[in-house]
Design brief:
about 150 residues; alpha+beta; 3-stranded antiparallel β-sheet; 4 helices
Length: about 150
């Protein structure tokens, strides 16, 4: 099935067309979850929480805030995606003054997960925030590649 056969059937999950993101096999999950819940849901589907290519962020046609696959759980300030690729802290993809690990209630190291904002810039954020997300699935014939239609 293609994007059009899913789009509109149930707007909670849609196979996203590559023309919008430059990536095949993305499933948009239109349900807000914490970053760990989003990651676990993607892994359960046989994929991962998507981290967009930085070059694609500037031209992305989606005016939506969502979780990305980047986090700095292993080492503070070193943001890795689920494949281990590093997002540089001096990248132009970050919003002004980000990443800042803005502490909440004077707790250091409070913002460990990365969101894509509606202005297509990245921001480190508390992982318990509820955001929508994309899962990237390597093999859409995998039985874990499920749609709620």
């Amino acid at each position: 099935r293609d994007y059009n056969s899913y789009h509109g059937a149930n707007k909670r999950e849609v196979l996203w067309p590559a023309t919008r993101t430059g990536v095949e096999n993305l499933v948009w999950v239109d349900v807000a979850r914490s970053w760990p819940e989003a990651r676990d849901e993607c892994v359960a589907r046989g994929g991962w929480l998507w981290a967009p290519k930085l070059a694609n962020l500037r031209k992305e046609q989606l005016n939506q805030q969502y979780w990305t696959g980047w986090n700095d759980f292993q080492q503070e300030g070193v943001f890795l995606d689920m494949s281990g690729k590093t997002l540089q802290p001096n990248s132009k993809a970050w919003a002004d003054e980000e990443p800042n690990d803005s502490p909440d209630r004077n707790t250091p190291g409070d913002e460990n997960c990365v969101e894509k904002r509606t202005d297509n810039k990245l921001n480190d954020l508390k992982c318990d925030r509820q955001l929508k997300f994309f899962c990237q699935i390597d093999d859409p014939t995998n039985p874990l590649f499920k749609y709620r239609t």
